[in-house]
Amino acid sequence: MSEIKNLCDIVIFGGHGDLAFRKLMPALYHLCSDGYLDNQTRIFLTTRVDMDNAEHISLVESKLHEFLGEGEFDKEKFEKFKEQLRLIKIDLADEESYEALKNSLDEFPHRDRVNYFSTAPSFFGAICKALSRWELATKESRVVLEKPIGRDLASSQEINIEVLKYFKESQIYRIDHYLGKDTVQNIIALRFSNRIFMPLWDANNIDHVQITVAESVGVEGRGGYYDDYGALRDMIQNHLLQLLCLIAMEPPCSLDADNVRDEKVKVLRSLREMTSQDIAQKTVRAQYEKGSSDGKSVSGYKEIEGLSESNTETFAAIRVDIDNWRWNGVPFYIRSGKRMRKKNSEIVIQFKSVPHSIFANKGRCISQNTLVITLQPNESIRLKLMNKIPGLSENMRLQQVDLELNSPMNIERKPLAYERLLLDVIRSNPTLFMRLDEVEAAWKWADVILDSWAENIPAMKSYSAGTSGPSSAIALIERDGRSWHDE
Ligand code: BG6
Fold first, then answer.
1. 3-state secondary structure 42-93
2. Are residues 259 and 346 in the same domain?
3. Which of 32, 43, 278, 478 is the most buried (most CB within 10 A)?
């Protein structure tokens, strides 16, 4: 139970959409039930659909049953939570239809307000305009923008310019839910509160870094959206680059939002711009074909209705180089894909070998130290070290063992990423949100690759569903004498 109860009004535009039901409502349910939100906090869900309040409440209840973790739904807690919910019928494109929202919000005109745009970005401008027309773009308001913000630098700038007409940058929270994951925040703790890593965290000691976000699921009914975006826009431009920033950034002078974001943006600006030749050699894009997942046969991406001619990648792997002193010559291999062998998100920091081995077989038995930060499915941090195998053999025999970091606190439930992020918006803490310059720097780097991919360079590869991706992704790293950390 928290000490401080936050009081505000939360409006979710697109309140009956997939994201709202799957992620936002479970997060708000927990925040309310665990006492982080005052019970006078009102949660408005907007929808175009005609529905009365009883139907609305029962819909939310059934969705919570579906999307809360096992055993988390509690009838008594829901009875309280439902009192905080309001249904507002709005056609997002029709300014007049926002009047009901105006009337409800104005019951408490100076209350803090969080406007969550859980809609396609094409609506962001219209929603802002309507909020301004009804004098709802108050100085106490904040807006949360869901990704994707644009498909490239130009379209993302258009969207941001539109929102910035009505809200100041300090009121805009661009969400990347990976930054809300507990283990991702732990990267900051691990790096900046442990002295032992300080002298090791650079090109003198680190051989390379791998970042993998693999999903076993396909596009799950989001084919229409996904086909317009693909793995580079959907995952790499945002989630994977944000993870890369946390690993690569210089120590900020404090955890203040701008200090952290200044350091991240420096990394993004140091990403080496790829030449056409680099893109041909150091990027891989691929689409999954039929195969099997969790023991069941699954169809290929092109078999999804309307996608038979698709040229969209469901897998991408890239060798990224960072042009600065700390990371000179240290490649970051990043990859992400749908319908992979298993759900697995991890960051692997591979240290260099010892300079000289005193052990038998000229050191062939010495594996490099590796720090493995696993985000999914089970969060963990493991440092792989060499250790002697007990026994009397003449030549000392070694084995690699895991030093595992377990959180000493036995907390009942790890907070959801969205829970953390929503609470940060409510508390007006933008540290874990992307500033405009970060989004733009990430697009600037991605655009060059996207342009080349649009010209079919390199050619699209394929992989069977349920595998680790195309063989070219293996070749990408093996060409450099390294291999993916696939346990
Ligand atoms: C979203 C992408 O941002 O992240 C989805 O749009 C993807 O395509 C999802 O499935 C993955 O999130 P998580 O937290 O399940 O790894």
1. EEEEEECCCCCHHHHHHHHHHHHHHHCCCCCCCHHHHHHHHCCEEEEECCCC
2. yes
3. 43
Q: Which residues line ligand 1 (CB under 6 A)?
A: 215, 234, 345, 376
Q: Which atom of ligand 1 is nearest to the CA of 181?
A: 14
The parent domain of residue 95 ranges over 9-146
Query: Does residue 3 lie within any of the structural domains?
Result: no
Residue 409's pLDDT band, with cuts at 50, 70 and 90, is low
User: Is residue 159 domain-resident?
Assistant: no
Q: Which of 123, 146, 169 corresponds to the end of one domain? A: 146
Say how many Å lie between the CA of residue 11 and the centre of ligand 1.
Answer: 23
CATH number, domain containing residue 43: 3.40.50.720
Task: For residue 2, tell me if it sits in a domain.
Answer: no
Whichever domain contains 300, its CATH number is: 3.30.360.10
Q: How many domains does the chain have?
A: 2
Note whether 386 and 366 are within 8 A (CB).
yes
- Nearest-CA residue for ligand 1 atom 5 is 234
pLDDT score for 2: 47
Q: Which atom of ligand 1 is nearest to the CA of 213?
A: 16
Residue 486 falls inside a structural domain: no
Beta-carbon neighbour count of residue 224 at 10 Å? 12
If you measure from the C-alpha of residue 305 to the centroid of ligand 1, how many angstroms do you get, rounded to a whole number? 21
What value does the mean pLDDT take over residues 254-266?
A: 97
- Quote the mean pLDDT of the chain: 94
Which residues does the annotation mark as catalytic? 239
